[in-house]
Amino acid sequence: MPHRILLAMDGSETSWHALHETIRFAMPDDVVRAVNVIDDPFAHYQAAFASQIDLEAVRDSLISEGQRTLSDTYKTLHEEGIQADTRSIDLRAWGGTIADAIIREAERWHADLLVLGTHGRRGVRRLLMGSVAEQVLRQTHRPVMLVTGPAPSPQSSSTVATATEKG
């Protein structure tokens, strides 16, 4: 029986790792739907940065980058012989958070599995930045496969996170 695999792509290195793991995991009859969620910068930054940053230009950039990511993802899946489609989800229209949008799409599309890259942040970085993958994992009732990128080198860790992790 073919499976429906929802792959969240944000253009990050970890999402590309998730794509490659999906390719390794997918069976010939499976269908992969790659999704990219377009966050609305106005929802987060309008009051603080409206006079200094053109938030509409930021949004246009997010849309363009998301389209490139989905196009490259589709091409890669197609070249590997995997049935695929893509969907761009705009939070300005859908509302909610990135995690909410991924979960709603998984339910709407009847996904059998969700695949997401996770940055593997710890300590202060995780506290400050949160984790879409963690939110999806906690809120969905569907199976989730989290894929991490390569382990960060000691030089790339922040001093605050390293000190927190050590104790």
Automatic annotation (TrEMBL):
Q: InterPro entries from the entry? A: Rossmann-like_a/b/a_fold (IPR014729), Universal_stress_UspA (IPR006015), UspA (IPR006016)
Q: Report the domain of life of the source organism.
A: Bacteria
| UspA domain boundaries | 1-147
Q: What Gene3D superfamilies does this protein's entry cite?
A: HUPs (3.40.50.620)
Per the UniProt record, one Pfam family is: Usp
Q: Which residue ranges are recorded for the region named Disordered?
A: 148-167
Compositionally biased spans, kind Polar residues: 154-167
Q: Which family does it belong to?
A: Belongs to the universal stress protein A family.
User: Any idea what this protein is called?
Assistant: Stress response protein NhaX
Taxonomically, what lineage is the organism?
Answer: Bacteria, Pseudomonadati, Pseudomonadota, Betaproteobacteria, Burkholderiales
Gene this chain is encoded by = nhaX_2
